[in-house]
Fold each of these.
Amino acid sequence: MAFTLTLASPIPFGKYKGQTGDDIARRDPGYITWMERNLVRVEIDPAVRRLAVNVGMIQSEERANAFGDAGDWGFDAY
């Protein structure tokens, strides 16, 4: 029997045991992707997947902005 991770359902195993899909997607969006790829008996609700993707994109953008643009490093933009 498969377990479906939803925004409100607590996960019954692993390093995020007891936390909801919403909590996990916001804290560690990569873990959602990892579960999809590696755990055969876990299904990810589309709402959890969308949240994880959105949070991941925001985190990537924040990391990029933390380094500034190429001009700050002495490189000319192409």
Amino acid sequence: MDNITLKKLKLVQNQEAATMTLNNPEKAIVDEEIRPGDCGRVHFQNSWWPARCDLDMTFQRGELVNVLGIDNITLIVGP
């Protein structure tokens, strides 16, 4: 992810109820299981982030996921 995209992520984190979709998904590693309707945690760009999947899918610890967007400080991930 380039510096411009990272700056956009940080900007979005500072905005109330902000959501952003990434055009070029990046990979993250699941650190805490992500279940439908429940947040887990991923390791992304040398940091841990809360993460959720809007699909009816479960991701186990150690799985690679794509970061598709961000909602406040929660990453939206998918297969």
Amino acid sequence: MTVMQKIRSEYLMNPEFDPPKVAKASSAAEGLCKWIMAMEVYDRVAKVLSTLAHLCSTKIFPGIRICAYIYWLRSFSK
């Protein structure tokens, strides 16, 4: 099981893993909760961009403007 799979199954499925609820216990824990949630979103977006970039590079997806935009977005994830 990867780290992201563990995060999705153990933490994000837990109704108590909610920043406002966690903030009642600790402001530091609230920040970690938000960070973990943001990392999960980043992981999903990075996978989609990677797939789209692959399609652009293989010329299966001929949209030149969208491909340039995808490569620009991927530059932030490196």
